[in-house]
Amino acid sequence: MSSSPQQDRPTLADLERGQPFADRHVGPRPDELAQMLETLGVADLDALAARALPDAIRDPEPVGASLPAPAGEEEMLAELGELAARNTVTVPMIGLGYHGTRTPPVIRRNVLENPAWYTAYTPYQPEISQGRLEALLAFQTMVSDLTGLPVAGASLLDEATAAAEAMTLLRRAGRSRSPRFVVDADTLPQTLDVLRTRAEPLGIELEIADLSGDTLPEGEFFGLLLSYPGASGRITDPAGLIEAAHDRGALVAVAADLLALTVLTPPGELGADAAVGSTQRFGVPLGFGGPHAAYLAVGQKQARQLPGRLVGVSRDADGHYALRLALQTREQHIRREKATSNICTAQVLLAVMAACYAVYHGPDGLRSIAQRTHRMSAVLAAGLRSGGVEIAHEHFFDTVLARVPGRASAVVDAAHDAGIALRKVSADEVGVSTSELTTVAHLQAVWSAFGVGEPAVDELDAATADALPEPLRRTSEYLTHPTFHEFRSETALMRWLRRLADADLALDRTMIPLGSCTMKLNAAAEMEAVTWPQFCDLHPFAPEADTAGTREMITQLETWLADLTGYAAVSLQPNAGSQGEFAGLLAIAAYHRSRGQTERDVCLIPASAHGTNAASAIMAGMRVVVVGTDAQGNVDLDDLRAKVAEHGDRLSALMITYPSTHGVYEAQVREVCGAVHEAGGQVYVDGANLNALVGVARPGAFGGDVSHLNLHKTFCIPHGGGGPGVGPVAVAEHLAPFLPGAGEVGPVSAARYGSPGVLPISWAYVRMMGLDGMRRATLTAVAAANYVARRLEGHYPVLYSGVDGSVAHECILDLRTITKDTGVTVDDVAKRLIDHGIHAPTMSFPVAGTLMVEPTESEDLPEIERFVQAMISIKGEIDRVAAGEWPADDNPLRNAPHTAACLADDKWDHPYPRELAAYPTGGTPGVHDRKVWPPVRRIDGAHGDRNLVCSCPPPDAFA
């Protein structure tokens, strides 16, 4: 009997519910997934899970109990809107390194809200990263010019982290053997806190000294950190202290406000060896504390000591100007047990915004903003003085410290009632900071809060001198390069940004199948709230009553993440995966100390681990001992047991990535964890590969004591060209008291919640996917990786697999035999993929001579097949080289990528046709209309390292 129309018709509830968001996030359509699973020989995702995942990691308990049922996009945005409405945005005049700023709409629309910028990856493939590299070179030039130091990096995580990196850089670069590092007491309090956290495990003796009398402490020290201006707003000439420190054999870093340096003599001209600070006030929203791009600039002698990333000028195969990351292979200074820094993620998207802000305003515009900001502060101080209020400092840039004995709370409360946030310094002092957002009406409201009558502003302005020290007024030029003069109209800037985006290859144009990096969809609905004023305009030191909505969102996200990972508590403070690793290891070290086991300092790390693991262990004061891996890429249990026995009571921790860095679910992971626990050690499960676990297994349930999570991988915060990243740390109950900032362990980031400005993205992802959606995403990612492995195994050997032949969410293609037999390298394959319009997988990590492929769950089958067909086509070309049809040094692979210019050249003397160079798969559908033309040919990295140029060269330099 046939069913009636009423029985076939969906219910009103079904129609109102609409299409689940997971259907939008997961790429393969049901028929495509069925085809993939048929290729793998399994009936459905549950059958795939039963085959690929070891029983040992399955969690018998229900997971995701705290997660609500998945919401649709509109429902999610409505809930997020309710949370946003619980925040109160005031005029930010608190200061302390965070300032109100305007993001020019042309930058907000064309960079921050543009997937061509926010979905890009770190520029490890420079030929298709020239746009973001040019923007970062502008950032470096801006910082170098303003600080007066010749070399600046391409951003660090925040000002406090940059100061800590400067501290360790000065220790490496200097000759002094003293462990002492002297810090000006007038330094930002959050910077002092992070310096304390970083110094203690490294044996650095931090001395906080009052330097207001221009006198250094007695004795030897290796480095000095000064603040210019100070946290209190005070400006003094640091030249004398710098000279005195140099006379003692110490090196000097200066924490400087970049906007103030448009009107103040730069640190480099005052003799400083390094300068650090934030570029937040260059158009980057407050975001409740982050993400913001910090800077670190150094003298030429320290250039090769820089942590993080450095963009350098080089040349391509035709001798043309080209950019690349300099002085590094994959991550600069990530050298396992010899590491000096664990910095991996930068703040590229925010650095690009800051650079664009400087390009948009130019030197005259920045100087005008600085002068206006300063005049507001000077007139504010004059008005307070006219009303009998004492001003603590004669010289300042934007921060006035007012003395009001016993009245500080009343003043701050009165200002808050008027919608303005001031800083209560003590019961007797109030700090007021001006910015480009400050208006005369704000000054009048502040005067009123102090109980001062309303002065006649124009008369007061005319009668008030600047509060800048005359001898420190800047006389040198800055931002003289044409880049900071040519794109001043919105039309010109918009076109410049479009040109740069067209020189890049981001996720909006193609899949980016990077193993270990999880380049997945960052949905527009997830991104939407990032620019809502109720979230992005919150000052990190705003009163708690003003931030209730954001803090509730953070609490919910922490609870959900703890539930999904099987841990008891989560801290969202670490603002990068590397900082999450560091925080987790600090928690382990503090736990052992609390039990009187201070001798436990050995950290076991498998040979296959991420490079940041060893670097983080060194920074946490541990000794790294490497554990071997077996022929299948798993932790060698015999070697592990031998190392555990050898180090006995000194064993602190084991760091293990799961699934392994080799892309395999290790069946014996519980035995590995058990061996460490039996010896009294703790187990750190690196969460870089959590995209293969969410909804199917929990590291906190199968043996982990602590993990960091990469929200910029598994939980959809975009990579942004190399940042922002968020790396929260999750711990078992016994480690919860040792989370960063909880008391026993200090903070690892400047802001309490690290980078809360982007946390609405991950909140939205979890809220819309729900547990079932995330489980589906996990298993679809596993299906996609196994499909790629199965489709390509006849062309490229898959290096590692589990006991049943399955991989996890990524697979390693082994090209070592191919290279030995033909001379074709992983670099050749990676560059040839550019001619196919596809970003290369991860090269030579974790095994040299291999490609690690991670397709993720958000790529549909046609896109996965496009990659597969490209790799098969490339193998065909390799075979032609092997057969002697093309010379090993002159073939489409070795000469890739091919630019339009090289193909249009009258001279073409290669043994293959131009059409094959440009269109490797000929008439394959979708090839011609998706053609990517790289702006440069293969770049000579060695030339760039030998001839280090890391700021914008003159336009005719490469004519």
**Mind telling me the CATH class of the domain at 551-769?**
Alpha Beta
> How many strands, which pairing sense, and closed or not: the largest β-sheet?
7 strands, mixed
**Mean pLDDT, all residues:** 94
CATH architecture of the domain at 551-769: 3-Layer(aba) Sandwich
How far apart lie the N and C ends?
A: 81 Å
- Label the overall shape: globular
Catalytic activity: N(6)-[(R)-lipoyl]-L-lysyl-[glycine-cleavage complex H protein] + glycine + H(+) = N(6)-[(R)-S(8)-aminomethyldihydrolipoyl]-L-lysyl-[glycine-cleavage complex H protein] + CO2
EC number: 1.4.4.2
Keywords: Oxidoreductase, Pyridoxal phosphate
Subunit structure: The glycine cleavage system is composed of four proteins: P, T, L and H.
What does this protein look like?
The chain is an alpha/beta fold and about 950 residues long. Among the domains are: about 360-470, Aspartate Aminotransferase, domain 1 (Alpha-Beta Complex), CATH 3.90.1150.10; about 550-770, Aspartate Aminotransferase, domain 2 (3-Layer(aba) Sandwich). The strands form six sheets. A seven-stranded mixed sheet has the order 2-8-7-6-5-3-4, sandwiched between helices. It has a seven-stranded mixed sheet with strand order 16-22-21-20-19-17-18, with helices on both faces. A four-stranded antiparallel sheet has the order 11-12-15-14, covered by helices on one side. The radius of gyration is 28 Å and the shape is globular. The N and C termini lie far apart (about 80 Å). Residues about 330-335 have low confidence and may be disordered.
